[in-house]
# Entry
Amino acid sequence: IGVVNVPDPRIARLEELVKPERVQMATVDIVDIAGLVKGASKGEGLGNQFLGNIRECNAIIHVLRCFENENITHVDGSINPIRDKETIDIELQLKDLDTVTKRIDKSKKAAKAGNKDEQKVVEILTAVTAHLEELKNVREMDLDEKEQEIVDTLQLITAKPVLYLCNVDEAAAKDGNEWVEKVKEAVKDEHAEVLILAAQIEADINELETFDERQIFLEELGLQEPGVNRLIRSAYTLLDLETYFTAGVKEVRAWTIKKGSTGPQAAGVIHTDFEKGFIRAEVIKFEDFITYGSEAKCREAGKLNVEGKTYIVKDGDIMHFLFNV
# Structure
């Protein structure tokens, strides 16, 4: 498990103005799961251990090899990211099929006893079964809210959002290559993002000691920032997350919330007592804080808003909560 900071230049701007004792960035946990082989759904290789690990994750980053290199062997003896993707997909689809079939059997028994809700479950999961049998991922299905709720209870692996990461060589780091284009075409119906990253370049960047050295290296390759920064931001978006800040002399901190969170829900990320006893939140927009330079000046200029329990937190809000337990 790697805990990775979410790159956010706004933190540096707040640090300059507030001069806090410490800074805490938002983080994403990335779990590196051991490779999957054909037959994993039936217990081959690490089999069910792999599938158990992946079920606990919120989203999947699927790394596909899109470069040729005779010195680095491929388990199948040749480079073909579309084949590699399909190998993984089939194993995950088979595992989901097993999960859905077991649930249908259970729901059918309840439906026979007259449970109308379970009859609806059988209908929806029968459609999911047919979809999986066509070697398609559940995330491609067009489900309404009620259907989605039922599917969500099963934690199906192919229903999870996915990001395809094309690992390329240095020559393709900026614009990709023909394999990347084939991957984009293959996943166009999956509502999935495709990112290009050259893992070897990322390793080389990490060995450079100073920020200036890294920038020069990136500029020589025609890149604006390390690919890993784009990856982490994309993963953050994939998980439907956004950031709000707290800013004081003790600490400037980025807090992670689901998009659409209310004031009390955002407060609960700091401590459950903040959510239970929420009274109100004082909110300053990030741009206003940068313009006026401090909380006091924002208050004077009428740029500090007092919000109640129904307020939907916006990405970049700087917040101070009042609560009573």
